[in-house]
Amino acid sequence: xxxxxxxxxxxxxxxxxxxxxxxxxxxxxxxxxxxxxxxxxxxxxxxxxxxxxxxxxxxxxxxxxxxxxxxxxxxxxxxxxxxxxxxxxxxxxxxxxxxxxxxxxxxxxxxxxxxxxxxxxxxxxxxxxxxxxxxxxxxxxxxxxxxxxxxxxxxxxxxxxx
Length: 162
Hints:
By secondary structure, the chain is mainly beta. It is 10% helix and 39% strand.
C-alpha cells in the first residue's frame, strides 16, 4: 500500500441546529467533530490499514456561531469544525484524514486507498463513515474508473450488503 486519503463530512455539525443539538457545538460538552465522527474514522483506518507510526494533527474552528432552526437566533461555537490528521502508518505508507463539519456539495465521504497494483475507493453521499451507506469500488493497473470492478458493492443492509 502506498497511501490513503479519507475526507469525510459530519453532516450533523452544519451551520444550523435545533436547540436540542446545540451541545454539539460547545467544546466543553465533548460531543464534537473530533470526539465523535473523527475518532470513528480513525478507528476504521487503524482497523483496515494499521496504526500510525507518527502523525500531525490540526483543529480549526471556521464557524464562530450556529443558527438555531427553532427561532433563527444564533449561538456561539467553541468546538472545531475541521480536523486534519496526516502521518505515516506503521507500514511506511502515507495517510491522511480530513473531517469537516456540515455537508459537502460533492461527496460527503471519499476514502481512497492507493496501492502498487490498484486502488480502492469508498464513497457515500452521506458523511460519517460509521453510519453511512458505503459504495466500494476498485481498479487495477492502468485501468481508469470502476465500471466493471469486481468489488463494486454497496455495503449497507438496505442495498443487500452486510
